[in-house]
């Protein structure tokens, strides 16, 4: 099985930046596409961004384009989410996930991390 651990969350001011990491166990990280999702209290899980196995293909939620960038380093078994120009509405718990394809649907991912909290103050 695959285990994922997110890190890099924290408290940041509006307009600030954070870089989230998703560390995968084992040596099979490159076999999977990776997605980032977020969930705020009282809201449903929301797609953030996804990346193909090799990293050649990426896409992100329309509302986040230009601010969030997904990437991965397969040699380190680690994925990343660079978040810039953060807004209070970005406040949520952020999760990484692995699955067979880079989709925007949470149910299509097989492995999930525990999440890391991102809080953006106004």
Low-confidence stretches: none
Rg from alpha-carbon coordinates: 13 Å
Inertia-based shape: globular
How far the N terminus sits from the C terminus, by CA atoms, comes to 40 Å
Strand content: over 45%
Protein traits:
122 residues; mainly beta; four-stranded antiparallel beta sheet; globular
Short description:
With 122 residues, this protein is mainly β. The chain is 0% helix and 48% strand.
Report on this structure.
- This protein is an all-beta fold.
- The mean pLDDT is 96.
- The strands form two sheets. Strands 2, 4, 5, 6, 9, 10 and 11 form a seven-stranded mixed sheet that branches.
- It has no helices and eleven strands.
- It has strands at residues 4-7, 10-13, 18-24, 33-39, 46-51, 58-60, 68-73, 78-83, 92-99, 111-112, 116-121.
- A hairpin with a 4-residue loop joins strand 7 (68-73) and strand 8 (78-83).
- The radius of gyration is 13 Å and the shape is globular.
- The protein starts with a strand and ends with a strand.
């Amino acid at each position: 099985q695959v285990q994922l651990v997110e890190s890099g969350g924290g408290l940041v001011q509006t307009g600030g930046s954070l870089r989230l990491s998703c560390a995968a166990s084992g040596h099979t990280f490159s076999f999977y596409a990776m997605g980032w999702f977020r969930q705020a209290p009282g809201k449903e899980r929301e797609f953030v961004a996804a990346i193909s196995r090799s990293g050649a293909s990426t896409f992100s939620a329309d509302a986040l384009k230009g601010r969030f960038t997904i990437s991965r380093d397969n040699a380190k078994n680690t994925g990343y989410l660079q978040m810039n120009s953060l807004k209070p509405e970005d406040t949520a718990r952020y999760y990484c996930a692995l699955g067979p394809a880079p989709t925007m649907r949470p149910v299509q991912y097989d492995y999930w991390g525990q999440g890391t909290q991102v809080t953006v103050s106004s």
